[in-house]
Amino acid sequence: MNLSFTVSRKKIHEFVKSIDKLRLLRLTIAITIILALISTAIAFSQDLIVAYGDAESHLNIAKRVVHSITPGMAQLGGIWLPVPHLLMVPFVFFDPFWRTGLAGSIVSGAMFIISAIFLFKLTLLLTKNKYAAFIASLVFVLNPNILYLQSTPMTELTLVAFFLMSSYFFINYILNENDIQSLLLAAFFGFCAVLTRYDGWFLVLFEALTIILLYLRKRHDWEKTEGKLLLFSTLAFFGVAIWMMWDFLILGDPFYFTNSQFSAATQQQNWLKRGELPAYHNLPLAFAYYMVTAMSNGGVIIFLAAVAGFILYLSEKKGLHRFFIAFILLVPFIFNVFTLFVGQSVIFIPHLTPVGFEWRLFNVRYGVLMIPVIALFFGYAFFKAKNAGAKILLIALFLMQFGLYFVGYSKIISLSDGIEGLSHAKRPDAENFIRKNYDKGLVLIDDYARTLSIIRSGVPMQNIIYIGNKPYWEVSLVAPERYASWIIMQKDDDVWNAIYDKKDVQGRLFKYFKKVYTSPQILIFRRIK
């Protein structure tokens, strides 16, 4: 019996190409893991993991879920979205990971790796060129602002990962509207983005709008489009419903995240009263602020090359649904310009912020959300380069940009904000005093005011009384001796206003406590034994 078979040359070629793609993807993953470990080790050795004030706040929210005087899911609060904190919970359980910030580094580092993988896949999807995908991934993973933030508990890398995953599957759906599996995966990762940062709300909104726009372009089979829209929206927008329901059940207001004294909107009103909300109701300035912030994070040279790649992409007439795809990829830019314009957000960046402002560096890390898009279109420019000379020029520009970072000409601006900008964590001397003198007992403190660092103080989280510990907090503000052994207050914080500024409560304070530390801003009291 004779057996024979033939394999077409085309199939062999496709198989070899798939092996090549897999090799480059594996190389991308290996490089990303190595860079994640090295940058985290450097940040750890330089005590930079918790340089941002918000970094500790994220760690503390997760920690209180498992270790608190009143532990539980209610400790997630109602302002910051829960997914980043839930991802940290298994790691903050261990005190060394909480106090060093490594609990957050593990989560951000994992999301960094996932982001690199899906940026590679997304660039490959749009270019069908594995080298362009590899270049785009390198631009992303070698960016020093990304490398720093992936070593911290900040939430930007978690959002970037979910944005790229949702965008990848949604663009897959745009290119093949019969791919319902991709639509469902886009909705799921959109759901995750919705519960990570508020930027994610814009992402799923724009994806839903794109489903409608795709129908309007063809104007046929509305029933099928309606079914897809319902299928996508039910899952993607479920995160919005969950969060509003959570705020209503826990805090009594479904819009607590935007109405409360702790919300971004309320904080921006304080800047507005001072005349220091420059982009408010000024669309050109809002556009300029975010464009410069994105450019400063991505690197000027790489940013300009990416803009050229973006123009080439839009001008590619063979590019199927290119405007819809660009619509999705530009969501981070549109969201940040919008929030700056309506006064829900503020960015101070030295290139634009008036000299007379108290602070000229704040929230510049928001620009890193555009780095995956910048990297993608840099990769696209590489793909469209017509000859080897043009490709070599782009690689030279890429290397030149990192040379500017290396010599210090280009600042690692997201790191600078954490060290010297308004975002940096305060390190008052009172922190050293508590670390050296705290022995035992409950500590009453307004943690929202960031009087001092709990993770650096040595005080166990389960010994802290703060605004989220009901009824301990409310009782302590009228009868401070009831639970607390230590009271730490900062001028004009809630503890100061409720106890030190009210004569009747102040009398109880001095009856049961002795002042053991005094500075112009911070007072520390210890229970009289």
UniProtKB/TrEMBL annotation:
Keyword Glycosyltransferase annotated: yes
Organism: Candidatus Roizmanbacteria bacterium RIFCSPLOWO2_01_FULL_35_13
GO CC terms, sorted: plasma membrane
Membrane topology of the entry: Multi-pass membrane protein
Ranges that cross the membrane: 24-44, 97-119, 131-151, 157-175, 202-217, 229-246, 287-314, 326-352, 364-383, 390-409
Recorded superkingdom: Bacteria
BP terms from Gene Ontology: lipopolysaccharide biosynthetic process
Annotated protein name in UniProt: Glycosyltransferase RgtA/B/C/D-like domain-containing protein
Keyword line: Cell membrane, Glycosyltransferase, Membrane, Transferase, Transmembrane, Transmembrane helix
Broad class of where this protein is predominantly found: membrane
